[in-house]
Design a protein that fits this description.
- Strand 1 and strand 2 (29-31) form a beta hairpin.
- This protein has a two-stranded antiparallel sheet with strand order 1-2.
- The chain starts with a helix and ends with a helix.
- By secondary structure, the chain is mainly alpha-helical.
- Helix content is 80%, strand content 3%.
- Helix 2 (35-45) packs antiparallel against helix 3, helix 2 packs across helix 7 (140-170) and helix 3 (47-66) packs antiparallel against helix 4.
Length: 172
């Protein structure tokens, strides 16, 4: 089971990287589906795996797009936090969440990640001297809206993805 779990995590990290490369970038707003592998891994295996998938997926994405910079670890933090929190919640619910619980955790973490990313963007803009209030904070409301919408969709389809993956992983 440990090998299956490690391979599944590696596949989810790879999916994160690929999905993040196929995002829509609108200036300071990014519309992407890259958080879904984090959510799946965290809901399947718990907080450590969610954190690992979020951290390494985001880290690989940062390396591919920007290389290693002084702010790389800041940009990686929101995805890692998402995985950690969803995993903690799923574990607390004994990996058996109903629709409302799934919606609660996916939407809550989407809001938190939006605020964390805004904070990282602020710090990055100050460090690299491109700060503008309009750039950093101007698109917060649309980013919140898209984050919640994507989280709602992910929360709605998560049970339909988790069930077959669990049954596959439980086979010997």
């Amino acid at each position: 089971m440990k090998v299956k779990r490690m391979v599944t995590n590696a596949m989810l990290i790879a999916m994160y990287v690929v999905l993040s490369l196929f995002s829509i970038n609108l200036g300071n707003m990014k519309i992407t589906l890259d958080s879904f592998p984090i959510i799946v891994g965290a809901a399947l295996f718990g907080p450590v795996d969610g954190l690992i998938i979020g951290f390494f997926g985001s880290f690989m994405n940062q390396l591919l797009l920007y290389g290693f910079t002084p702010t790389t670890l800041l940009w990686v933090t929101p995805a890692a936090v998402r995985g950690l929190l969803i995993g903690l919640y799923a574990k607390r619910r004994q990996f058996n969440m109903n629709f409302g619980q799934t919606q609660f955790i996916t939407i809550s973490t989407a809001l938190l990640v939006t605020f964390l990313n805004t904070g990282v963007m602020y710090l990055d803009s100050k460090i690299y001297d491109y700060y503008s209030f309009a750039y950093v904070f101007g698109a917060v409301l649309p980013r919140i809206f898209t984050g919640v919408l994507v989280a709602f969709v992910f929360g709605s389809i998560l049970p339909y993805v988790i069930k077959p993956v669990k049954s596959f992983l439980d086979r010997r």
